[in-house]
Amino acid sequence: MSLPAALQGSFRLPVMSAPMFLASGPELVKAQCQAGIIGSFPALNARPAALLDDWLSEIAEDNAAFARQHPDTSVAPFAVNQIVHRSNARLEQDMEIIVKHKVPIVITSLGARPEVNEAVHSYGGIVLHDVIHNRFAHKAIEKGADGLIAVAAGAGGHAGTQSPFALVQEIRAWFDGPLMLSGAIAHGRSILAALAAGADMAYIGSAFLSTAEANIVPEYQQMVLDSSASDVVYSNYFTGIHGNYLRGSITSAGFDADALPAPEDDTTPTSAKTAGSKAWKDIWGSGQGIGSLKEATTVSGLVERFATEYRDAIDQLNQQARVAHPASVN
Question: What is the pTM of this model?
Fold first, then answer.
């Protein structure tokens, strides 16, 4: 099955950015698109809700202007993430704005809604639904999603626990449509590995926390740069859904990162509960791939590093193939 037109551009890399709560805004998205990868942000990051209309206009207009000024550069499309769970009171309003702007790619999370898919299809857009295991993947496609985002173990935010190799293998056994892979991808060779595993694109979020365009406080960015996979804690305590968070932020907020209770068994000391912490503000999400992030950079700088690493990984793989199977490699 060929990819939809929105995913067939001359991208710098086969990469789609993951929408990060609070961190992803217009500046990050525009920089990602103009660097040649698909940018994205959660609709709920636009607060108040009326700001979503302004953000979509800004992103589209600035990307178009950049394309005119740099005719030899390919500007990638952008995506908007919609939480389609019934608890999202803004869903209908935000969908009206998305349809108005004809957003080319919509990412749906926490449920699969046929009416959302139909609204996006009405103007020729595509829907990619994120899933943490094969059962949800089947449901998403049955309800009209065009493609899937496999959110595997090690991904930032609300991640699953399955190996990326296992998850992609199970999905590819029956689905040949668009498939993105998320899970601790923060290096060019990991992008190549995602494609080798069967994905069409790598889906990268946490690495962009190291960039100047990310809408995060300096302390958050520094903690990302100072941390590694062992500093990421997987818990459902903060939102009721399992996700990956930075140990340092959990500790700073007054919690014991090694003894977080289940949401239904809340025995957290009152002092911790009253520390003023909120998962969307003081408890900072991150995937396990951050160990390869050593310095603050820009989106263009990070994408350039990824591109160099990606090319080097391809060259190394070809060289290894020549040594191991010289007669079969041209």
Answer: 0.91
